[in-house]
Write a structure and sequence with these properties.
The chain is an alpha+beta fold and 495 residues long. It has helices at 61-72, 116-120, 133-145, 153-156, 171-175, 181-205, 218-231, 302-308, 334-343, 364-372, 389-392, 399-418, 424-431, 437-465, 473-480; strands at 2-5, 82-87, 90-95, 104-109, 251-252, 263-267, 276-281, 293-294, 320-326, 349-355. The protein has a 3-stranded antiparallel beta sheet with strand order 1-9-10. Strands 4-7-6 form a 3-stranded antiparallel beta sheet, with no helix packed on it. It has a two-stranded antiparallel ribbon with strand order 2-3. Helix 3 (133-145) crosses helix 7 (218-231), helix 6 (181-205) packs across helix 7 and helix 13 runs antiparallel to helix 14.
Length: 495
Amino acid sequence: MEVTLFALSSSSSTFLSSPLKPKLKNLSSLTKRPTLHLSNKALPFRVTSLSVPQCDTSLPPAVQTFWQWLRDEGVVSAKTLAKPALVPEGMGLVAHRDIARNEVVLEVPKRLWINPDAVSASEIGNVCSGLKPWVSVALFLLREKSRDDSKWRLYFDILPESTNSTVFWSEEELDELQGTQLLSTTIGVKEYVQSEFQKVEQEIILPNKKFFPSPITLDDFFWAFGILRSRAFSRLRGQSLVLIPFADFINHSSSVTTEEHAWEIKGAAGLFSWDYLFTIRSPLSVKAGEQVYIQYDINKSNAELALDYGFIESKANRNAFTLTLQISESDPFYGDKLDIAESNGMGETADFDIFLDCSLPAQMIPYLRLVALGGTDAFLLESIFRNSVWGFLDLPVSHANEELICRVVRDACKSALSAYPTTLEEDEKLLESKLDPRLEIAVGIRAGEKKVLQHIDGIFKERELELDILEYYQERRLKDLGLSGELGDIIFWEK
């Protein structure tokens, strides 16, 4: 039986998937014309004047100029409820006035979005048509960034040169992640981005110098990747990947525990415009002068938050470890086990994300029991059991099978814990002091993974202590056939 403790995966197909699942509203009402009724009676309401949020003059000039651009484009108006400000996270949005829960904070029309549609409509649309969406948008970002006449010139001027995402860490900083799954994931992502750059450089950039007159380096490509990874929205109606100027100012907070109503696409923008709007609503009530927050993704682990955005949370259930189980090709029952796994939506390998203080994934124990099946338990792999064996694996199969999965998982946890250069106690001591932001992330990730490994080990240690009192398949079968007494003894019938 092989159990591999594996790195978090980042497949290219879901590589830039952004977190939130928007709740879209019924748009049919937007096509109806309003009916106006006039009378000479006094109006039953008082018209009040709403002021346009003013940008703080203490902010960097580039931000003030960007804000003026948003006003000129009609994005910022009296209806805009938040404005940029310097906050502990760097730059964020603060409430211009009191904001109610679920109230619209800002709206940005589609003509200012940066997405695959913007690429297709540009001069490089044809040469980028066969590329992955994120690669084409990355090239578009870099080309527009180099142009003085770009529509988004003032937006590019306020984008950061890097983030605290682990893809931007130095070798020395990455050394602090030794033993962690995040280190191997980060290295894998960097190799993937480098591979994509080498390919696009040879196939697109160099053969089309009229479109890319300014040299594009690997560092430039990483910058574009980092911007998209940390700022792009996706899984919106008809949008797989979209960068929204102004909307990406809004920061994440762990105090926001819902993803509902965070953002959506709606359209059209008005009676005389069929442009679509990207809308952000506040998930919480906010007082004037307070920062407006949203939840980036309630299901992401700290490792994913560090990789995507360059921060982690202190919440216990953000700490995770990915356990990868594998049916070995050297297993004499490999074919039968693989057939059963595939019949139940799984495969030769299976990844299970285990979070601190949370129960194990539902499919994990059955898969473990399947991988460990052998010896006298192998009869369950016969074809007559093929349609029912997965149900049998929900419960303990035999003492030997259960003992094996406990031993293998616990050994794997101990092996993983021994790979860290520090102990959990040393990490927790470090976290009590003021650390550089990146070192604080590294130590937090190390400590979190160790806690999860201890959590997993504790679960299977308790299971080991129960081996002698568990009811196994044979006993359950005899009981179902009426051949076992209340105390589990076998009943012999006299002739």
